[in-house]
C-alpha cells in the first residue's frame, strides 16, 4: 500500500491513523513540510491533570492518559531544565495510539529531588522503578536530550516491558566531532564547578526574571520561533513559575548537568549504544545548536542498524516546531538510515 495515496501528508489525523503504516520518502518529506508550515496553529490539547505517584520514596509528578489495551505505552522523558510540559504538543496524536505517560524527572518540573538525587544515574533508576509502579506495559520509551541519555542507559540495562526506544536529539557519547556550540560549552563548564554555579545561576535567574527564563528555555531549543504555538510559550512561563516552588531546583540542575558531562565522556556510555537490544529510532534536528547533527551522525556510525531520521531546519526540541512530524516518528511511521546521511 502506498501511504501517500491513502493519507494526505498534510492532514494530521490521517497521517497518524492507528494503522501506523510506514510512509514512503516522498510522503514523509511532505509531512515534515506541512508540519513545519502549520505548527504555529496547533491547538492546545485537552490533557489529563497532573497527579503524583510514589516511586522509591520520591513523589513523582506525572500525566497518565490511562490504560489502552490495544496499543503500546508511550513513556516520554524530558531533558535538562525541561518538564512533562515539553511533550504536550505530541500528546493528542500519541494518545490515539496507546497509553501516554509523561513524568517529571527528579529535580525538574514539580518533582523534588531527594537528597540531591537528580543525576543521570539517579534518574535512570527512578525511571525504571516508575515503569513498574505505574504498570507500564509494551513500552515505547522516548527521551529528548538528557532524557534520551537516561532512556538509552535504561534500555542498555534492560527492562522486561521495554519494546522500542526512540531518542529525540539525545545526548550522544562525546568525541572529537561531538561538540556543542561555544556558548553551551561555557555553560556546562560553569556547571562543572558546582559552588560557582550555585552562586551564579540564582543571580542570573533573578536578573532575567522567572517569566523571561521560561521564554528563554524555548528560544534556545528551537530553530525558528515563529513555528511555536502561542500556548507553548504560555506553558513555558507557567512551568518556570512552578519550578520556583522547588527548593532543590538550582542544585538539582547543577548536579544533573555535571552528570551529563561525566556520563557523556565515559566509556560505559559509548558501550551502552551496542548494549541496547530493542529496536531504536533516533530523531535529530539538523539545526540543533545543543546537540549538533554532525556529531550525532559520527557517534551513531557504530550502530548502523538504528533507524536514523534527520529533520531539516528543526532544532533541539522538535515537538515545539513540528509536532505532527515528531509524533509520526515516535509512532514508527518514518524510516531512515545513518548510512544514507
Automatic annotation (TrEMBL):
GO molecular function, one term: hydrolase activity
Alphabetized Pfam families for the sequence: Abhydrolase_6
Keyword line: Hydrolase
Domain AB hydrolase-1, first and last residues per copy: 75-328
Record carries keyword Hydrolase: yes
Alphabetized SUPFAM superfamilies for the sequence: alpha/beta-Hydrolases
Protein's UniProt keywords contain Nucleotidyltransferase: no
Protein name: Alpha/beta hydrolase
Organism: Dermacoccus abyssi
